[in-house]
Amino acid sequence: MNINKKISNDLKLVEKLIKKDISKEKTISGLYKYIFKSNGKKIRARLNLIASSKNLNKNRIKLASVIELLHTATLIHDDVVDDSAVRRGTKSVNKLWTNSHGVLIGDYIYSKAFMYMVDIGNKKILEELAIATNDISQGELIQLDAIRNLNITLQKLKKISYYKTGRLFEAAAKTGAINSNENQAFIFNISECAKYLGILFQIKDDLLDYSDNKKIGKPVFQDIKEGKVTYPFFYAYQKANGKEKKILKELLYSSKKIRRKDLELIESLSGIKKTEQLANHYHKKTIECAKKIKNLDIREEMIELSNNALNREK
Amino acid sequence: MNINKKISNDLKLVEKLIKKDISKEKTISGLYKYIFKSNGKKIRARLNLIASSKNLNKNRIKLASVIELLHTATLIHDDVVDDSAVRRGTKSVNKLWTNSHGVLIGDYIYSKAFMYMVDIGNKKILEELAIATNDISQGELIQLDAIRNLNITLQKLKKISYYKTGRLFEAAAKTGAINSNENQAFIFNISECAKYLGILFQIKDDLLDYSDNKKIGKPVFQDIKEGKVTYPFFYAYQKANGKEKKILKELLYSSKKIRRKDLELIESLSGIKKTEQLANHYHKKTIECAKKIKNLDIREEMIELSNNALNREK
Predict the structure, then answer these.
(1) Domain assignments of chain A as residue spans, ordered by start
(2) Which residues in chain B have their CB less than 8 angstroms from residue A28's CB?
(3) pTM for the complete prediction?
């Protein structure tokens, strides 16, 4: 069986393991089932499985489930934070139930992930995932500073992309490799590669929010509506003259509907183009790291993920 | 130095260790400092230190800090869930900042606790605290079912008190004892004792919410205002006739200000008296377990905590 097929099969086992865990309490099982009914892309769990695919280990599926649980918990808390109504094409927990349910089922899933991690019982894996979880919350907190903040720096935006998204990609690859008892060079290369892939993924997410295609399956222009400064807005604002700055500032503060001409303004100020260049930059970094991975199957998988991340339209 | 003095000193070291950890990110350090500026009662950290006071171990202070961090994280998420404006006599994070800040700094503190736990590196301690954290979130989720729920059972209310409060008391004592390499009998007795103490603590909390004294330092009649059925309301409703049931139901649904005569109705229907009896029942259970603890210093500490919990007026 080729590696790609093997990993697709393993991802089904991850889903199965996660869904097996059903609480006797109706409210909890109802929430839990709803959350894991819609299957996400599972790119983080996939990364983890790729990194642990050379030397199979009994905890392989459980570890990938931990990664998926951690990611899901952050998504649910994110939806509360952003007051999002939609997640994975269906209503978010906070909308279908309440914010309170979102906060608490997020905590439930977080702690479930920690229970599985403790079961696996590898200190290095525990360390990496505890720190990564803390870093993710830091990324989200720093992002709150980016709301209606016209003075945010590119450095800070990059830190947000890394902490909020790159960090779990990195930890997914790193812990997978640790779980497979890989050598230091492999652990380092695949972690770096996954980190840049995560940052690329986030930059592309920011870009897609400024696209007006219908394929994304979620509302667009959400970031600016929430007053969140991301790359396209940042670059456009950098280049804007006084009058344009005023228009952009109004968009950020008004939470009104973004119109075609607002997008055109951001485009004309190179907001989209410069973000695409940044995405290309991280794509290149990802490929460079991938090429240092000696195992050709794994190298190919990483390159494919990177190309998909760059070219994805949803 | 007697044990009581020793533990008071150790609690100061716990505070110091927690406060030492300051992020370079202003928003995070601002939130963190604010949260740990006001010192709570630290009864859970105290329990942990009592349980680990016979055989001192290098991780003793760190473990008590983990317990305090976990508790603080649950409080912050609780305040978001209950939309509380006040915590420890000052404004809650969700009021002074936003709900989003509350959710995320709660996650930050949770994961910080896991980082410390992993440092300690004792698998049994990790297991107990991962499961306890999951149980706490279950208790909170089940409690959401108690909102405006006139069909809630006494059994369910007891489960809420145990999961939401008793569980961390139990885990605090248990992990303290494990950290001190205590024998199984001691671990069992002090855990049971702490568990009942926690349930007693919660029952007393529910009672204090129905008292009209000014000492509590937080608003009273919050539970009924939030539509939350707790013991005093539950017992009163059980005994009420049709007309009284209607009045009680209105109180639960209207979120209007509770007046003197509403409290008198609940009192006349034995809501307060029966809750006090339940508190006495758990106080008795706590004392019974405490008497099984052979170390006289620790036994005395547990009995004192139990008496204080029963008699506290805030």
Answers:
(1) 3-311
(2) 138, 141-142
(3) 0.94
